[in-house]
Structures are given as structure tokens and as C-alpha cells.
């Protein structure tokens, strides 16, 4: 008779943590780094962490100081990839501490899967969005008909365990993006669900993410067996 015991080589479901109060960026970064070490050591489960930050500008490893136009908020250097990004109230952030030792050691596929997850979640609210060649992030059509960024992605991988993740603009103060050149792309603006006429709470967004999460995890696990598409 075939064994019905769980296989140790299959990834277990990540822990989901959801914050209702803003978490200071440096505090979240320290917690995420500690969780990365614990997951790599086999001492903790993987983590999907949903939260918001007080207003902050973060600098990725490719940040150009010339793109910090007006440092009106705290500026924090971080180890994720990318350039300057804004985080603040009304923007939902998803931090992913996932073990690519088990889910496939391919950072490109990991980013591709995150993009697909955000795109699928936005579609649940009737928003069409897409990837754009040579432009990192999630893009949609703004109210003026032009392309605009509605979601940002920046990741770091250490010991083949991931950190950072993505952010999506629900209803942030879009004027706060004016202090930086977001992700180094000056030709395009940023938008939000609220600007597109949609009122989506953090609770509703988190529930939609959870509803599409299994497809995201399946995409990672499939990418471990073949190249991502």
C-alpha cells in the first residue's frame, strides 16, 4: 500500500500575517531579515506578510541619488533590488519570505510569478494590468489614457530565501511620489485603485490576494520543474 505520510520535499503552506496598524519600515526590515535567517535554518515556516508603512522612501541597490528629488520623508537604504520607491498609508505591501531551495532557484521566475499574482488579484476588481518590457512593476491604464504604475516589485534573495516583495496602490497620497523618480522611470506616472474610481479596503485586497495565492505558489513550484513563462 502506498504511504499517505506527507513528503518532506514538498513545500508547506506559508504562514500568513496581516497587520492592521502601520509598521515602521526599519522595524519591518529587521523582522523580515530575522525571519529569513530562521527559514534558511529550518527553524520557521515561510511567511507572507501584508502591511502598510508610515511615509518613507526606500533606496534599492541601484538607487541613483539624483532621483531623490525631495527627501521630505525618511530615506532608508535597503538590500532589495531596484531604485527609489515610496511606501505610505493607503499602499498595501506584501513581504514574501519564501524558500527557493524548495520552490526553485530561479529569481527571474520568482519575480514573474509575483507579477502574475498581482495582475490576477487586480483582475478580481475589474482592473486590467500587465507587465511591461524593460519596466519593472505592474502597469495599467490611468484615467488620462496613459500607462501608469499601480504596483512595484523589489526582491532580495539570501541563502536562496527571499525577502521584500511587492506593493500595490490602493489609496495612497499620490503627491508623495513626487519626492522621487519612482523606480527610476520618469516618463510614466503612478496611479491607484482610488484614482481609477475603485474603493478597495486593505481587508478586501488581502482577501483577494489570499484567493489567488495558490496559483502563485503553484507557479513557483512549476517553475522549479521547468522554465517560467
Written overview of the protein:
This protein has 229 residues and is of the alpha/beta class. It has one domain (16-223): 2-Layer Sandwich (BirA Bifunctional Protein, domain 2). The protein is 26% helix and 27% strand. The protein is built from four helices and eleven strands; from the N terminus they run βαβββββααβββββα. Strand 1, helix 1 and strand 2 (47-51) form a beta-alpha-beta unit. Helix 3 (107-123) packs antiparallel against helix 4.
Give the gist of this structure.
The protein has four helices and eleven strands; from the N terminus they run βαβββββααβββββα. It is an alpha/beta fold and 229 residues long. It has one domain: Bira Bifunctional Protein, Domain 2 (BirA Bifunctional Protein, domain 2, 2-Layer Sandwich), CATH 3.30.930.10.
Write the layout of secondary structure elements.
Layout (H helix, E strand, L loop, with lengths): L14 E4 L6 H16 L6 E5 L4 E4 L15 E3 L6 E4 L3 E7 L2 H4 L3 H17 L5 E4 L2 E7 L5 E12 L2 E9 L19 E2 L11 H22 L6
Parallel strand pairs: 1-2, 3-4, 9-11
Antiparallel strand pairs: 2-6, 3-5, 6-10, 7-8, 8-9, 9-10
Q: What are the defining features of this structure?
A:
eight-stranded mixed beta sheet, 4 helices, three-stranded mixed beta sheet, BirA Bifunctional Protein, domain 2, disordered N terminus, alpha/beta, 229 residues
- Outline the biggest β-sheet: 8 strands, mixed
Overall pLDDT, averaged?
90
What name is given to the CATH topology? BirA Bifunctional Protein, domain 2
Distance between the termini: 37 Å
Order of secondary-structure elements = EHEEEEEHHEEEEEH
Task: Please report the first level of CATH classification, the CATH class.
Answer: Alpha Beta
Q: What general outline do the C-alpha atoms trace?
A: globular
CA-atom Rg in angstroms: 17 Å
Number of helices: 4
Amino acid at each position: 500500500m502506498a504511504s499517505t505520510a506527507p513528503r518532506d520535499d514538498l513545500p508547506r503552506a506559508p504562514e500568513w500575517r496581516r497587520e492592521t496598524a502601520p509598521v515602521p519600515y526599519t522595524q519591518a526590515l529587521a523582522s523580515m531579515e530575522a525571519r529569513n535567517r530562521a527559514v534558511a535554518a529550518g527553524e520557521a515556516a515561510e511567511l507572507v506578510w501584508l502591511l502598510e508603512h508610515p511615509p518613507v522612501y526606500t533606496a534599492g541597490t541601484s538607487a541613483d541619488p539624483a532621483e531623490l528629488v525631495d527627501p521630505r520623508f525618511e530615506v532608508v537604504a535597503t538590500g532589495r533590488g531596484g531604485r527609489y520607491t515610496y511606501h505610505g498609508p493607503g499602499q498595501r505591501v506584501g513581504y514574501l519570505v519564501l524558500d527557493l531551495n524548495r520552490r526553485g532557484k530561479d529569481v527571474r521566475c520568482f519575480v514573474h510569478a509575483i507579477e502574475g499574482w498581482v495582475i490576477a488579484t487586480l483582475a478580481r476588481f475589474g482592473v486590467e494590468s500587465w507587465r511591461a518590457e524593460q519596466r519593472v512593476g505592474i502597469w495599467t491604464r490611468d484615467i488620462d489614457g496613459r500607462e501608469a504604475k499601480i504596483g512595484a516589485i523589489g526582491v532580495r534573495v539570501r541563502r536562496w530565501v527571499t525577502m521584500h516583495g511587492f506593493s500595490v496602490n490602493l489609496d495612497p497620497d499620490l503627491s508623495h511620489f513626487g519626492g522621487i523618480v519612482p523606480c527610476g522611470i520618469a516618463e510614466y506616472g503612478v496611479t491607484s485603485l482610488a484614482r481609477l474610481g475603485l474603493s478597495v479596503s486593505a481587508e478586501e485586497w488581502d482577501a483577494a490576494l489570499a484567493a489567488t495565492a495558490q496559483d502563485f505558489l503553484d507557479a513557483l513550484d512549476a517553475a522549479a520543474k521547468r522554465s517560467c513563462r
